[in-house]
Batch of 2 targets.
Target 1
Amino acid sequence: MSESYQLTRAQRDDLRTIAAMIVPASDEYKVPSADDPAIQADMLATLGRDTGLVVAALDHLARLAGQPLAELAAAKRDAVALEFRNNGGAAAATLVRVVLQCYYRDDRVLRSLGLELRAPFPAGYVLPDGDWSLLDPVKAKGGTLRRAP
Amino acid sequence: MKDPVDVLIIGAGASGAAVAWSLAETKMHILCLEQGGWMNPAEYPSTGRDWEAKFYGEWATSPNIRGRPEDYPINDDNSPIKVVNYNAVGGSTVMYTAHWPRLHPSDFKVKTLDGVADDWPIDYDALTPFFEENDRIMGTSGLSGDPLSPLTHPPMPQQPLGLSGAILGKAMNKLGWHWWPSDTTVATTDYEGRARCINLGHCTPACAQGAKSSTDITYWPQAVRAGVELRTHCRVREITTDENGMATGVVYYDKDGVEHFQPAHVVIIACNGVGTPRLLLNSASSRFPNGLANSSGLVGKNLMFHPYAQIYGYVKEPTDSNRAPPTCLWSKEWYDTDLSRGFVRGYGVQFVRGAGPVFEAVVSEQKGILPWGADHHRVFRKLNGHRLGFSAICEDLPEEHNCVTLDPVLKDSHGIPAPKINYTISENSQKMMDHALARGREVLEMAGATDLCINSPIPWGGWHLLGTARMGTDPERSVVNEWGRTHDVKNLFIVDGSIFVTSGGVNPTSTIQALALYIADQMKQRLANLFD
C-alpha cells in the first residue's frame, strides 16, 4: 500500500471537501471539480513526499472545523477555509499545491484550456520567429560599452 | 593505498569540466571526483505528464527540498535568499536557465571606476580567448552586435522572438530602452551532436532534448575520450597536507560509503561558492587550524548571490507560456553606474516568456490573485498563458559579513559538517532592487500588463554563488592569486565562482568557465615551475 493511502477516511473526506472549495466544477468551462474521483485518486496515488505536510494540513483543518468539513453550514465552512488559507502556513500551501497540480494535469481540464494532452517531450512546440525589425530602433540608437582602464 | 594522480579535480560541474578538458592535452593522469552521478535524460521531467509537479519535489532547485542522496544540506535559514544548485556530472549546468551573458570589461575594475569593492587582478582582455573557446564548446546561440554588451560570436542564431519577445520588444521601444536577444546555451540548430531546441519549455530542470548545453554532454564526453578519469558518487571530505604545507590528496567516500585516500600531486577545487569554502574549512588541521588556504581569514567571506528583483504581470494577448525556453531577451539599460539613481553599480535584466499551467495556478493562488471558488476558472483563464516577466540581476558587492561557515550541528549523509549561510541584502542592493522594480513596472504597464506581482528578492534565487575564496595579488586580502593558485598551498587551485572578486550584474557561468580555462592555460604554461 502506498504511503499516500495512510490518510484516514475522515482526512480523505476533508480533502475532497476542501478541494471542491478551491476548484469547483463549471458548466460554463465544462470542467469537473477538484473533488472529482479521478483527480482525487491522482492526488492520493502521488502524494509521496508531500504526505506529511498534507496530513498536517488536514489535521489543522479538522481542528478548525471541529467536525467533518462537509457537515458545516456553508458560512461556517467558508470561514474555516478562509482561516486555513490565510494562516495554514507551509502545510496548507502544500495541500493547495497538491490539489492544483493534480487538477491542472487532468485531461478534461487541459482540454478545456485548449492544451494538448501530452508531455512536452518528444514533440515539443513551435515558436514563431517573430518580427526582428523590432530591433531596428535599438540598433539605430546604438550605445557605448563602458570602458575599463 | 591508491596510486597518486597528477591532477585531482573535485567537482564535475561548470568549472571542473572545463579545467579537466583543457588539462587533458597535457596527457597527465587527471582524476575528477564527483559526488553525483551521470544523468539520464530519459528521466528528465519534460518526458512525463507530471513534468510540472516534479519541480516541487525531486527536481526542486533547492537541495534542501530535493534531498537526493547526491545532495548535501545547507543551513540557509539566516538568509533571505536560499541556495539553489545541482549535484551531478554537469553540476548546476544540468539545472539552469541557459541564459549566457558574460561580465563586462568594466566589471573587472569597479574600484578604479566607482570607488567600491576591489579591482580584479586580471582584466577582461585576459579572458577574451577563453570566453570564445568556451562559447564554441558549450555551443551558444545569439545575435552578435549588441551595442551595450561585450562583443560575442555565437556559433548559432538567436532564439525566436516568439509572442512574448515581440510584446516586450515593442514596449521597450516605446520607452526608448535597450534590449537585445539573449545569448544562450540553447542550441538553435543541430550542433556538435546536440539536437536543436524544440521548445520543451521546461529548460531549467534539465533538457530531455539535449538542446540546452550542460557539461555532461559537452566538455565531459571530450575530456573522458582524451583520457580524464571521472569517478562518480565520490564525496570528498577533506584535502590533506604534509609537513611542508603542500596538498597530498583527498579523503573521500565512495558510493558504498567506504572511505578512501586518493593521493595527488595537484588538487583543483571546483565545488562552487558554497561547496568550496565548506571543503576548505572542513580541511582544517594543526598546520591550518582556521581551514586550508585561509591565512587571510577570507575563506567563506564576501559571499555574493545576485539578489533578483522580479516583477511580472499579465497581458491580454497570448504569450509563449511554457512552450519556449523561459528567457528570451536581456537589457543592459541600467547596467552601469549612474549615481543619480541613488546607488552604485547596476543590474542586468532578463525577460521571462511565461509559465506552465500548474506553476501559474500554484503561484497565483499563493499571491492571492487566483481565487478559490466560483470565480477560479474565469480568473485562471485570464492569467494562464498571458504572463510576462522582468527579472533584474542586481550586482551584489562583497561584504565580509555575508559568509559561508560550517554549521555546528547539521551534517550530510556521510557525517561531514554542512555549510551555513549568513547573508543580508545591503542598502545599496535594496535601492538597486527598488529601482529595478519601478522600471519593470513601467515596461510591463507599457505592454498592457495588469495584476502585477513582485518577488524581491526571489527567495529561491541563490543560483550564483560567488566571492568566498576571492582572487587577488595580496595574500592578506585574497585566497588565490591572479592565476587561481592558493596563496598558502602551492599545489592547490580553485577554479569556480568562489574566486570572483566582484559579481557584475549578469549570470556568471560563462565567466566562471572562461576563468577555469584561463587558469588551466596558466597552469600549462607554468608546468615546469608550477609550485615556485
Target 2
Amino acid sequence: MTDFEALLKALSRHQVAFIVVGGAAAIAHGSARLTQDLDIVYERSPANLDGLVAALAEYQPYLRGAPPGLPFLWDRVTLTRGLNFTLATSLGDIDLLGEIPGGGAYDDLLPDAIELHVFQTCCLCLSLPQLIRAKRAAGRPKDLEALAELEAIEEEEI
Amino acid sequence: MDRPQRPNPNPNPDPVVAAYKKDIDRTLIRENLRLTVEERFRKAMALARFADEMRRAGREAKLPRP
C-alpha cells in the first residue's frame, strides 16, 4: 500500500517543486476510485532534481518491475537522462513525470494548480478542470471511466 | 433516492464517457465531497489496506488444505 502521507511529507520536507496528478489528485477532488501509486509532475531544474533525489533516497527507490540487481543509481544524472520514472519505494509506488498529455510540464501546469493543505503540509495539485483535460487527452479506456467520475464530481460541485 | 441530475458543464460530451457516467455511484462522490482532503486520502489508504488484506486472504484460501 502506498503511504501518501509519508511520501508527500518527504517531498515537502526537501522542498521539492511538484504537482500531484493522476489518481491521487482525483482522490483529493473526491473520487471514490482506488489508486495504487502517487503520480507527480516534477520541476526539472538541477536544484529540484537534487531535492527529489534527497527526498526519496532513504526509501530505496528502484525501477518498478525491473529485475532485481539491475544497476540503477538514484542520482541527479539518472533523473537528467530520463523524463518519466515509475518507482517502487519502501513507502509505496510513486511515478515521477516530467510532463503529462493534455497538460505539459510543471511550468505549464503551475498557473492553474491548486494548493492542497494536507497532512500538516502544503503541496500543489491539479485543479479539477486540469485533471479532466489530462484524462481526456490520455484517452485510455481506464481514463474514460475515470473521466466520467471526474465530470460527475464537477457536476456535483456546481 | 437520487437527487436530480445536475447540468453537465462539458458542452460536447463524449458518448463513451456519458455511457460510463450513468452508472457512477454519486452517493459515494457526495459522501467524499463532505470530507476534508486529508480525510479523503486517509479513507483511500484504509481502503487500500483492506484491499491488500482481502488479496492476501484470497491467496491463502486457494492454497491446498493440509
